[in-house]
Amino acid sequence: MLSKIIEEALNQQVTIEAESSQVYLAMASWAEVQGFEGVATFMYAHSDEEREHMLKLIKFINERGGQARVSELKAPPTKFGSFRDMFEILFKHEVKVSESINDLVDVSLKEKDYATHNFLQWYVSEQIEEEALARTILDKINLIGDDKGGLYLFDNDVKQLIGNGTNSSIQ
Ligand code: OFO
Fold it and tell me: What is the pLDDT of residues 125-139, one digit of tens each?
């Protein structure tokens, strides 16, 4: 059985994952309109992954006798400047998500909830991979700069990175 403190903390993470999914969906749509099909495909897939992260939390909360909360979400931006700016936002966003996962792990230890602690390990390793992937992409974009030909090739390559930030399938 989840304590009220853990239930609330997990529910806050549900909202964070749902908002992440929305942010990446907005990025996908923006990239699609700019004609960058590869980046758009990558962002649509990433948005789906975040929704899966959210669902995994919802199921865990409900299975452990709590009640998952599906709440109102902040609207994401509709424009992202350049690809560099967009991937910078993505990287910073993932760093923030990692911080909130770390805080959750902390709460689970304080509450002596070892089942939740164990469950959260999946998110800890997922975040290591997601941050590394975002950093790799940013490094590539920084190398390309504003070179149109480079961006065109990047748009093709980025599709191959889909799923790289996922450490296992979601049950
Ligand atoms: Fe991109 O992060 Fe979920 O957990």
Answer: 999 999 999 999 999
* CATH number, domain with residue 58: 1.20.1260.10
Exposure string of 9-41, with b = 16+ CB inside 10 Å and e = fewer, is: bbbebbbbbbbbbbbbbbbbbbbeeeebebbbb
Ligand 1 centroid distance, CA of 48 (Å): 11
Residues whose beta carbon lies within 6 Å of some atom of ligand 1:
17, 20, 50, 53, 94, 97, 123, 126, 130
Q: How far is the CA of 46 from the centre of ligand 1 (A)?
A: 9
pLDDT at 171 over 50: no
Q: What pLDDT does residue 32 have? A: 97
Whether residue 167 is contained in a domain is answered as no
Instruction: Quote the domain boundaries for residue 115.
Output: 4-161
Residue 168 burial (C-beta neighbours within 10 Å; 0-12, 13-18, 19+)? exposed
